[in-house]
């Protein structure tokens, strides 16, 4: 499975937040590493997309499109400066 960076989910995040989120920083709840969303390791070969921490590999966010609506779970990625 090929890993992408956080830019691969930029469009879906824009749909959820209404702004470009790729340069937004957050902290991994698993290891405490701080990174930009653009730096996440993203896998898109699932029913949605999974963003993982570049440091520890922990799952930080999951995006799934259901009936043309994007659902986002980012409980393990604490946004430092949310929009």
Describe this structure in words.
This protein has 83 residues and is mainly β. 10% of the residues lie in helices and 40% in strands. The chain has one helix spanning 10-17; strands at 4-5, 25-28, 34-36, 41-43, 48-52, 59-66, 69-73, 77-79. The strands form 2 sheets. Strands 1-4-5-6-7 form a 5-stranded antiparallel β-sheet, with helices on one face. Strands 3-2-8 form a 3-stranded antiparallel β-sheet, with no helix packed on it. β2 and β3 form a beta hairpin. The radius of gyration is 12 Å and the shape is globular.
Please give a quick description of this structure.
With 83 residues, the chain is mainly beta. The chain has one helix spanning 10-17, and strands at residues 4-5, 25-28, 34-36, 41-43, 48-52, 59-66, 69-73, 77-79.
């Amino acid at each position: 499975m090929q890993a992408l960076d956080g830019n691969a989910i930029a469009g879906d995040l824009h749909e959820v937040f209404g702004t470009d989120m790729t340069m937004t920083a957050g902290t991994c709840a698993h290891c405490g590493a701080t990174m930009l969303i653009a730096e996440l390791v993203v896998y898109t070969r699932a029913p949605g997309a999974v963003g993982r921490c570049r440091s520890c590999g922990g799952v930080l966010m999951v995006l799934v499109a259901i009936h043309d609506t994007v659902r986002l779970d980012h409980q393990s990625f604490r946004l430092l400066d949310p929009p």
